[in-house]
Amino acid sequence: xxxxxxxxxxxxxxxxxxxxxxxxxxxxxxxxxxxxxxxxxxxxxxxxxxxxxxxxxxxxxxxxxxxxxxxxxxxxxxxxxxxxxxxxxxxxxxxxxxxxxxxxxxxxxxxxxxxxxxxxxxxxxxxxxxxxxxxxxxxxxxx
Amino acid sequence: xxxxxxxxxxxxxxxxxxxxxxxxxxxxxxxxxxxxxxxxxxxxxxxxxxxxxxxxxxxxxxxxxxxxxxxxxxxxxxxxxxxxxxxxxxxxxxxxxxxxxxxxxxxxxxxxxxxxxxxxxxxxxxxxxxxxxxxxxxxxxxxxxxxxxxxxxxxxxxxxxxxxxxxxxxxxxxxxxxxxxxxxxxxxxxxxxxxxxxxxxxxxxxxxxxxxxxxxxxxxxxxxxxxxxxxxxxxxxxxxxxxxxxxxxxxxxxxxxxxxxxxxxxxxxxxxxxxxxxxxxxxxxxxxxxxxxxxxxxxxxxxxxxxxxxxxxxxxxxxxxxxxxxxxxxxxxxxxxxxxxxxxxxxxxxxxxxxxxxxxxxxxxxxxxxxxxxxxxxxxxxxxxxxxxxxxxxxxxxxxxxxxxxxxxxxxxxxxxxxxxxxxxxxxxxxxxxxxxxxxxxxxxxxxxxxxxxxxxxxxxxxx
Lengths: 143, 464
Hints:
The complex is a heterodimer of chains A (143) and B (464).
Chain A: E1 2-3, H1 11-24, H2 31-56, H3 68-83, H4 87-102, H5 109-132
Chain B: H1 2-25, H2 34-58, H3 64-88, H4 98-110, E1 117-122, E2 128-132, H5 145-154, E3 159-165, H6 177-185, H7 198-213, H8 221-248, H9 250-263, H10 276-287, H11 294-302, H12 321-328, H13 334-365, H14 373-388, E4 395-398, E5 401-404, H15 407-420, H16 435-463
Parallel strand pairs in B: 1-3
Antiparallel strand pairs in B: 2-3, 4-5
Helix pairs in contact in B: 1-2, 1-3, 2-3, 2-5, 4-16, 6-8, 7-13, 8-9, 8-10, 8-13, 9-10, 9-15, 11-14, 12-13, 14-15, 15-16
């Protein structure tokens, strides 16, 4: 089974991350649309965190499944370098903060800044991926 | 000025995309299937959203950074729409046999797959289920009303696309593999319990760690993710095999092995697939299980005792672990080679549980789709001899009278004819060419005819 959308070329993903920043950092979006974006972010962080916790048990019987694995793959592929072993904690923390925001409970600046830090680093990594995707090279068939 | 020329180019691009979509809309899709048209509506939504961002970019009151950002997003949406059109290529009636799509859709419905799905052929030896998650498109704002309505019309996400090989490799009996691909669409609903395999899991983990230790590779989060990902992929392949087996019985085994023989003859091991020989072994176990097994029934009627090599004699067994790691290292990095090698014993140990869970799920939720040895016996009894006289297996007699043959019945009768009765088919006209190939082509045509007429009969039955 193959998944056909490269994250760095997915306008939907880029849109939700940018809108996520607008909601959490700049507080520019209100109402139903704010709620919709927080719902999507909450699902993204919660599933990724669930997948990450399953891995941390080092037990094959607790292996993560979709959608947790699929959401986690985004963060592992793009944020392993900046966060390394701290990634599971950061995902868990972000999931908790976004869950509270979604319920309408304001969070302190430090907490929201740490969530924004993840989103910004993910956007930056996606941008780098986009910029460094090689152009199609000439094809040779050496049959 | 540069912004203006980029704006004009994007506008032209979006207009051409519109034109391309319009042309595709007038294309007949086999079986009047709604999937491709829903996909085209989504592409239209993207293009029209692109136009909205272009308007923002052209607004004289917009600051340059804002205009530039809007223009780039319009370009991204255009590129994405262009890419989406590639995904629907091969879904038209000239590429995929029109007879087969409606029966495939019946499998989709019987398996209670609610997602929008479409079928297409590709000039590649490949069956696959493509998954388009489209998770985040609902958050694009502003967007065109057409994008919102296209997303709403999809119903459950993700959107699914089944690919079958086209042209010479698009052989009807091999299409039994589509049941496996549909199995992927329900794999998350199949929940095996592996709790009795803790020891095998621990042993597997230790073996992986020991091998990585020898090269000072630390088992970090990324490697744990790789292990989990490969394990999950392999389990999903076996779940899909189990669904294929349940839906089509021996025809799935024949089709899978025949396809692997014709298209590869390699170990089949990768980050996405367990070894092909392991899949064969597990399927043979299922075919021989129960008092009246598929193998017994098939043997009684055809004289052919199905075994592992029956339709894939050159699919190799994997070598021992140390050798396999060395061989896999040629195509994968060491860590991947180790994970793939050491997962094999664990996946072998849990294989039966995966099949058990799939069977149990289907018995509960889609019992009518399960193909049984009794049904195979009836199908071979009623259809095999007439097929040799060029009578397609369209309808079946039972206690309730005549009713349309199912796709699974047609495929099984087809394989029985192909593997055991080709000599009984009438000699083809003309002396030129390969006689057996001509007979097989005739069989292919008969089966297509059976699929078309049984579907027509089924529609008629449903309207009574």
